[in-house]
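WARN  no MSA supplied for this record, continuing single-sequence
INFO  ligand: flavin mononucleotide
INFO  echoing inputs
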Amino acid sequence: MKTRITEMFGIEHPIIQGGMHYVGFAELAAAVSNAGGLGIITGLTQGTPEKLANEIARCKDMTDKPFGVNLTFLPTVNAPDYPGLVRTIIEGGVKIVETAGNNPAQVLPFFKDAGVKVIHKCTSVRHSLKAQSIGCDAVSVDGFECGGHPGEDDIPNMILLPRAADELEIPFVASGGMADGRSLVASLAMGADGMNMGTRFIATQEAPVHENVKKAIVAASELDTRLVMRPLRNTERVMTNDAVEELLRIEKEKGADLKFEDIIEQVAGVYPRIMMEGDMDAGAWSCGMVAGLINDIPTCKELIDSIMAEAEEIITKRLTGFQNA
Ligand SMILES: Cc1cc2nc3c(=O)[nH]c(=O)nc-3n(C[C@H](O)[C@H](O)[C@H](O)COP(=O)(O)O)c2cc1C
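INFO  complex generated
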């Protein structure tokens, strides 16, 4: 399939694997890229420029296809070495960066000068337009359904995507709630040039996370996610578990007085324990409502091939069937 996104990134299929903390390692990024999509290494999971350089090198050993690096800008006290990470990405020869979390204006000139394409992930039309105005090449529009940080507007993709299509000139991919060929065709119908998936790619053979995480996604229904940290205006959609229910209890108890320190036990530093050790009640981990559509753990190639085959079937049979009826 050829879209503005496949052309821009030099990929075969318009499917991107969004950056994911403690999931987006070289193994997954390479597997997605080898399957014709765009795999993305999560920069902040590596943390330091040295470790990121090593991860980029490992990915290059596993694929000769294009892959990207995610750079998430967090409101943190101990900011990571962003200038060093930017330099590492450029020196590592990576040509695609997914930015997220905050306006990437400060890093954009460095990437532009180095010929790196930037796709910015955002959760609203106004942030998408801002990204376009500062010179981002594309945006990833994350609806309310998404795993991770859906923002504070709560607009689902059935509204957000056509709104984005009406306003944007640069290409965008639909993100949040995407799982299969139906998702892809719907995204294209609503004006996107492809789709971005997070949760779906965790439940794949190559995702280098503990089996318990994959099993939890397969076992979950669309009712099993919760929104946490809303009182802090840092809303995150996570899979429910004992720690998350405790977190919600604390949020209710503290009300408007809630501080990050009150829930630090449930959110800080829990990813390695969950993703690496499979301790599923260790804390809050991002997961999309799309878990309700995920029932298997295929290889990335099986997943992407089945998405493209289903999309083709829908376009050429189901949709054209209506036309000829
Ligand atoms: C476990 C997990 C970790 C994530 N970590 C990040 C991250 O570090 N940076 C980022 O920009 N997005 C992160 N995301 C968001 C994804 O890149 C993607 O936008 C989102 O998962 C799309 O929604 P979906 O899960 O419904 O496909 C994460 C998502 C998940 C599920």
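The mean pLDDT is 97.
INFO  checksum written, moving to next record
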